[in-house]
Amino acid sequence: MHLPAILPWGAAEGFSKQMLLVLLSVVFIAVFFVLAARKQQLVPGKLQFAGEAAYGFVRNGIAKDIIGGRDFIKYVPLLFSLFFFILVNNIYGAIPVFQLPTFSHVGGAYVLAGLVYVTWIAIGIKKNGLRYFKLATVPSGVPWYILPIVIPIEIISNFVVRPVTHSLRLFATMLAGHLIVMIAGSGIEYLIMQENFLLKGTSLLVLAGAIAMYMLEALIMVLQAYVFTLLTAIYIEGALHADSH
Amino acid sequence: MHQLIISAAAEGDVNPLIPNGWEMLVVFVGFAILFFIVVKYVVPMFEKTFAERAEAIEGGIAKAEKAQAEASAALEEYKQQLTDARTEANRIREEARAEGAQILADLKEKAAAESARITAQAHAQIESERQAAVVSLRSEVGTLATTLAGRIVGESLDDDARASRVVDRFLADLESQNAGAAK
C-alpha cells in the first residue's frame, strides 16, 4: 500500500520517491491537457469537455473573477499551472499506491511560494515603478500619527509574513494530513497485533476514524490547491492595483 | 509501518521546516517544464477554441438577426400589398356604384322622355279625334237643326244651298258671340 522510499526520509541526497512523484505529476498534467486540447472542436467531446471545464475553472473562476480587467489572461498560465501542479501533487496522498502528498516535504512549497513572491513584486514594480513599495506599505486615509505603527506592520505582513504563510499553509496541512493517516494506519496495525481480543476490536474504531480523516484529508488536498492559487491571484491583483488600495 | 515512523522519530534531529535542496530543485524544474508546456500549448489551444466558439455563436446570432430583419421586411411588404389591394377593391366598388347610379339616371331620363312622348302622342290623337268629332258634330247638328227648324217653320229647307248658308251664318254668329264672351 505504500511504495518504499527510494532513499529514507530526510536523506540529503539521491533520488527520492517525492522527486519521482513530482516529475510524474508534470507528465500526468501535461499529457492530459495536451490530449484534451489537441483536437479542438467547437462542439467538444468528453475529454475536451473535461479539459475545458478544468481550464475554465481556473480561467474564469479564479483569474477573471479576482484579477479581472482586460489583461487577466496574461496570468492564466501561471495560475493554471499552479492549481493543477499542487492539486495532483496533493491528491497523491489520497491514492493508495502513491500515498505521499509531495508538499508534505517543505521544499516544494518554498519554491512555489517563492516564485509567486517574486512574481507579484515584479508585477507591482513594473506597473507602478519603485513607488510601488510606498503604495504597498503606506495605506491612504490613515492619520499621520498612526503611520509609525501601521507602516512596520504593513511591511512585515506584506513582505515578510506573506510568503511564509503562503508556503507553510500548504506544507503544514499536507504534512499534518499525511501524519494523521499514517498514524491511524500504524495504530490499526499495532492494535490488531494485540493478544487481547478487546484491544483487537478497538482497531475497528480507529479504522472508522481513519476513514473519516481520509475523507477530510482528500477535501483539504483540493481545498489547499484552490487556496494557494486564489491567494496568488489576490497578491497579483493587489500588485496590479496598488494605487487604488 | 509504525517502525518506519518510530525510526523517523528516532532520528529526531530532522526539522521538517528545513527543506531538502534536491527536492526543491526537482519541484522547480518540474514546475518550470509544466509552466512552459502550459504557456506554449495548453493555454493557446484552449483560448483559440474559446475565441472560435464565441465567434461562431456571435456569427449565428448575427445570421439570425439578419433573417429576422428579412422576415419582417417581407411581412411589411405583404401588409403594404394587402392595403393596396384593399384600396383598389374599394376604388373599383365605388366606381361600379357610380356607374350603376349613372345608368339608373340615364334609364330614368329615357323613361321620362318616352312617357312624355307617349303623352304628347296621346294628346295629339285626342286633339285630332276631337277635331273630327267637332266636324262631324257640326254637320250633324246642322242637319238636325235644319230638320227641326223646317218642321217648326213648316217650310222645307231641303234646299241644301240655302240651308247650309243659314247654318253657317248661325254658327258664325255663335262663334263671334263666344269670341266676344271670351274677350
Q: How would you describe the shape of chain B?
A: rod-shaped
List the uncertain runs of chain A.
7-12
| C-alpha termini separation of chain A | 50 Å
Oligomer state of the chains in this structure: heterodimer
Order of helices and strands of chain A: HHHHHHH
SSE-based structural type of chain B: mainly alpha
Strand content of chain B: under 5%
Instruction: Estimate percent helicity of chain A.
Output: over 70%
Spatial extent as radius of gyration of chain B: 68 Å
SSE run of chain B: HHH
**Per the principal axes of the C-alpha atoms, what is the gross shape of chain A?**
globular
Give the low-confidence spans of chain B: none
| Strand tally of chain A | 0
Q: What is the mean pLDDT of chain A? A: 86
The major β-sheet of chain B equals: none
Helix content range of chain B = over 70%
Averaged pLDDT of chain B = 84
Using only C-alpha atoms, the radius of gyration of chain A works out to 22 Å
Structure commentary:
The complex is a heterodimer of chains A (245) and B (183). Chain A has 245 residues and is an all-alpha fold. Helix content of chain A is 73%, strand content 0%. Chain A has helices at 17-38, 46-67, 76-91, 106-128, 131-137, 147-192, 197-240. The longest helix of chain A is centred in the C-terminal third of the chain and has 46 residues, at 147-192. The termini of chain A are far apart. The relative contact order of chain A is 0.12. Mean pLDDT of chain A is 86; it is low at 7-12. With 183 residues, chain B is mainly α. Chain B has 3 helices and no strands. Chain B has helices at 2-11, 21-153, 160-182. Chain B is rod-shaped and about 195 Å long. At the A-B interface, helix 1, helix 2, helix 3, helix 4 and helix 6 of A face helix 1 and helix 2 of B.
